[in-house]
C-alpha cells in the first residue's frame, strides 16, 4: 500500500536535499506535525525518535507512478535496508501525522533513528528549521 512520507530535515522544501531527491517525484507537499516524536541533532542532519513531543515537517505525496522510485530513493538516502537490519541508520515506520491546514490525521512513512544511533542535543520545539543554525548549507552531508 502506498503512503505519503513525513520529512523533517534536509528533505523539507527549501532544504538542500529537497530538489536533489524529490523534485518531480511529488505531487503535493504540505506542512504537518508528528505527535509522539522528539528531534535530535545529528552530524549535519536530524534524527527523530519516538517520545513525548512533536516534530514539525512536511507531508509529501508521491506523483502518479513515482511511488516505487521515491520509496527506493528515500530508503537508500536514509540507509534503510529493511526492518531491524543491523546496518540501518534509520528505521522506516508508519505513524499518524497531522496536516497543519485542516488538522486531519494521515498515516505516513517516517524515518526514525535506528536503535543505538548516537544522538546529539535535542532540537527545542521539534523544528529543524528553527534550531538556530542554517539547515540549507549546500556543502553539508546528504541526509534527511
TrEMBL record:
Q: Does the keyword Transferase apply?
A: yes
Q: What Gene3D superfamilies does this protein map onto?
A: Gamma-glutamyl cyclotransferase-like (3.10.490.10)
Region named Disordered = 124-144
**Any Pfam family matching the protein:** GGACT
Q: Does the keyword Plastid apply?
A: no
Where is the Gamma-glutamylcyclotransferase AIG2-like domain positioned along the sequence? 5-128
The entry lists its GO molecular-function terms as: acyltransferase activity
CDD domains xrefs: GGCT_like
- Positions of transmembrane segments: none
Record-listed E.C. numbers? 2.3.2.-
Question: Keywords of this protein's UniProt record, alphabetized?
Answer: Acyltransferase, Transferase
Q: What class of enzyme is it?
A: transferase
Q: Give the matching InterPro entries.
A: AIG2-like_dom, GGCT-like, GGCT-like_sf
Superkingdom in the source lineage? Bacteria
Name this polypeptide is given? Gamma-glutamylcyclotransferase family protein
Amino acid at each position: 500500500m502506498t503512503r505519503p512520507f513525513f520529512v523533517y530535515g534536509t528533505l523539507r522544501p527549501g532544504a538542500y536535499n529537497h530538489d536533489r531527491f524529490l523534485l518531480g517525484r511529488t505531487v503535493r507537499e504540505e506542512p504537518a506535525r508528528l505527535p509522539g516524536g522528539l528531534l535530535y541533532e545529528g552530524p549535519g542532519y536530524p534524527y527523530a525518535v519516538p517520545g513525548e513531543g512533536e516534530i514539525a515537517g512536511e507531508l509529501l505525496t508521491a506523483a502518479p507512478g513515482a511511488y516505487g522510485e521515491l520509496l527506493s530513493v528515500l530508503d537508500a538516502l536514509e540507509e534503510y535496508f529493511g526492518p531491524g537490519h543491523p546496518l540501518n541508520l534509520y528505521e522506516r515506520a508508519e505513524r499518524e501525522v497531522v496536516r497543519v491546514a485542516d488538522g486531519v490525521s494521515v498515516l505516513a512513512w517516517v524515518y526514525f533513528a535506528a536503535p543505538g544511533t548516537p544522538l546529539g542535543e535535542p532540537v527545542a520545539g521539534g523544528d529543524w528549521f528553527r534550531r538556530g543554525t542554517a539547515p540549507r548549507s549546500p556543502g553539508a552531508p546528504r541526509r534527511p
